[in-house]
Amino acid sequence: MVTNNIIKRCGWVGKDEIYKKYHDEEWGKPVYDDNILFEFLILEGFQAGLSWITILKKRENFRKSFDNFDYKKIASYSQQKLNDLLLDEGIVRNKLKIQSVVVNAQKYIEIQMEFGSFCNYIWSFVNGNPIINKWSNIKEVPASTELSDKISKDLKKRGFKFVGTTIIYAFLQAVGIVNDHITDCFCSIS
Q1: Which PANTHER family does the annotation name (predicted)?
Q2: Would you say 119 is a known binding-site residue?
């Protein structure tokens, strides 16, 4: 929504241009590409305990350091590569999170083999139809839901790491499986 030449966005966006660009161009827009889905799954895991703006500001570094999120390459990272990542100041240097990327890449490939693609798997939880919420205030937006609980539980059962329900809900929002743009946001779907 635009009022008096002021674009109305969701309340979490703030003034940072990186946030505005991410909100306007990506957040809540349906993603069906397995490469992009993997990137968001990994970035959301790295975000745990940090602010999303921290991750967005390091996103290009993450892409460079993790071979553009090529999960096939990542699945076979050596211990030396993991050691190098721990020294990489351009990313979040958390040993468990870095190790989880390799495990998650391996499990991601297993899901692709079972379902044909990760896209088929993740979108099956909503029968291919995004959930479009109609929140009037950012305070109404939950941190997790029954859906994120269900997906988190299934991913954990499959061996994924850093896929708790809050992380998964943020992932679902990021890739447009759930659209949580508030009703007066210009990105809101009427």
Answers
A1: DNA-3-METHYLADENINE GLYCOSYLASE 1, DNA-3-METHYLADENINE GLYCOSYLASE I
A2: no
- The annotation status of 178 as a binding-site residue, yes or no, is no
44 is catalytic: yes
Mean pLDDT to the nearest integer, 57-79: 98
Fold of the 2-16+24-179 domain = Endonuclease III; domain 1 (1.10.340)
What are the structure tokens assigned to 158, written together?
A: 């499959």
Of 2-6, 15-19, 139-143, the range with the lowest mean pLDDT is 2-6
Is the Cβ–Cβ distance between 72 and 101 less than 8 Å? Answer: no
pTM over 0.85: yes
Q: Is 187 annotated as a binding residue?
A: no
Is position 60 annotated as part of the catalytic site?
no
Domain boundaries, the chain: 2-16+24-179
